[in-house]
Amino acid sequence: GVKFRGYRRMSKETTIKTQLPKLRFPEFMDMGKWEENILGCVSDVRDGTHDSPKFYRTGRLLITSKNLLPNGELDLVNANLISEQDYKQINKRSKVDIGDIIFGMIGTIGNPVRVRTEGYAIKNVALIKQKKELLNSYLVQFLNSEYIAREFSILNSGNSQKFISLGKIRSLSFPTPPITEQQKIADCLSSIDDLITAQAKNLELLNDHKKGLMQQLFPAEGETVPKLRFSEFRGAPEWGKKSLGEIAVFCKGKGLPKSAITHEGRNLCIHYGELFTKYTEVINTVKSRTDLNDGCLFSAENDVLMPTSDVTPNGLAKACCIKSKGVILGGDILVIRPDRQTVNGEFLARLIRNLEQKVLQLVSGSTVFHLYASSIDKLALLIPVHIEQQKIADCLSSIDELISAQIKKLETLKAHKKGLMQQLFPVYN
Predict the structure, then answer these.
(1) Could you tell me which residues come within 8 angstroms of residue 22 by beta carbon, excluding any fewer than 6 positions away?
(2) Fewest CB within 10 angstroms: 64, 216, 272, 332, which?
């Protein structure tokens, strides 16, 4: 983990009486309590346009609350485009400069972004320009603290639609340290941000590598062998053509009461919704419940699970291989049970995910979408010999392990920063 030296922990009693942070750098220990300030008095706080300019296929970017991401970045890809005339008109009152902070006011509240690029207009966001008393490098970190989250929660309580007025943002009262201490805190937290950004980039590269590798390890449309083949299989026969119904039998999970799905933090069965949110291509271990036997369907090793219904069709191409036998399978789960001697379930789950577009052509429904065994059994597949299936599955599993380790590193860094912020900023009294 990341270690920071040079700050000293303060007592709980001092924190409560003075609203000072629990953790303070040594050089500031004798500088007294933080000064209470009003944001509108120490920063120039404005907002973007209140009009609704016309959108075009080409033009200037218009940033709204929806384009502010939780990681402090801007989503410029999905921003709307406006005319040059509207862009200039909006920027007469709210031109965004490098170093400014933009903050969501409507729909998405918060997600502060410290600006690193120019050339866009804003709507439904607050614009905070730095003055001498308060550094934006410090303020953007403070705006992500629990102190501010609770403050805005109070200001916004009772509203059916998420909205914070510019007046309420300007009137925000908060404790502020001296400029030199602001800079020290900002430097400390931004150094962690740099590490988080680097780890997130590594994770993105790993995911891109896996995606590219899958395109190489499975045959392309119209081909019968993959572009990338392990050395021992070069020159081996083409992959055999089979329909899913030829290599597997199908069954469906059983509906269970909610109490049977989770209890005391243990997984007692697999619920179909978890195939979207919790599991990827492989489900390694799930604790099962043994006191529910009547009417239950239990997993077999090598089973492939797919959801049978969803409000959007895209989720129905999620296939997961379960490695544990005897796990209760809940309702709305399609169970594909291949012949273990000829088909590796993990390979099959990855193959089905790789054929997402073909799977989606078999989905039916309009409001709620369904995937039936009677439809997917016709899914055309190309299958190599079992040993080659295992080799492909093992290769992709090794990348999944790297991805999981990278996710854990990223989560650890984020947790470290969150804990440090709770120490470096005053608690909410």
Answers:
(1) 9, 10, 12, 15, 422, 423, 427
(2) 216
